[in-house]
Amino acid sequence: MARYTGPVCRLCRREGEKLFLKGSRCLTPKCSIERRSYPPGEHGRDSQFRRGRASDYLLQLREKQKARRIYGIFERQFSRYFERAEQRVGLTGTNLLVILESRLDNVVYRLGIGSSRAQARQLVRHGHIMLNGRKTNVPSALVAPGDAITIRPESLQRSYFRTLRQEIDDRQVPRWLSLDANNLSANVLNLPAREDIDVSLNEQLIVEYYSR
Q1: What is the rounded CA–CA span in Å between residue 110 and residue 61?
Q2: How far apart are CA 210 and CA 64, in angstroms?
């Protein structure tokens, strides 16, 4: 499976804002946006002074790219999610965000089991996560209301999960999820509403991009 292996801080600098791709590091002075807020590349420092008014297409493209990078999804899969969102009842942009939030790796991140979506994706791929009592290594699996998410019993003995059990804070879990911090188990109460999705995205620009 193809995946991005380059420096993720470069992606944040390209979008000109924090995408929180490195977890807690993004909250420290070591964050690349804090040190170098200009775009990456040889002429990145100069480009911020030469920019004119951005075209509508550029705004739409950048919003779509930002969404892809936040959730760690490649173009083909992202466009399939958009097609699925169009087929659902309701606003296409909101439907798209709900689908992205319903990915198993994102849910593991929202629960605080992974400090970033990349780490949550790795935990799923390595088989540490169980969905409805069955081990799964598919980060893109979509959860539904009533689904149960647990840690594989063998994995609970690992030092990472023993430490996590002491540090995890169930008060920071979104209201559409419930977490038992002692057992590191969770349930999906319902699908998130737009106000539950705290990502800085203008989904209407993404809809306009694909509607060209």
Answers
A1: 26
A2: 9
CA atoms of 111 and 168, how far apart (whole Å): 9
Residue ranges matching CATH 1.10.1050.10 in the chain: 1-52, 58-102+199-212
- Write out the two tokens for 7: 């420096």
Q: Which of 143, 69, 50 is nearest to 99 (CA)?
A: 143
Residue 165 exposure: Cα atoms within 13 Å on the Cβ side? 14
Q: What pTM was computed for the model?
A: 0.81
pLDDT tens for residues 24-70? 555 566 565 555 665 665 545 555 545 557 789 989 998 999 999 88
* Inter-residue contact 58 to 51 (CB < 8 Å): no
pLDDT at 170: 72
CB 193 within 8 A of CB 91: no
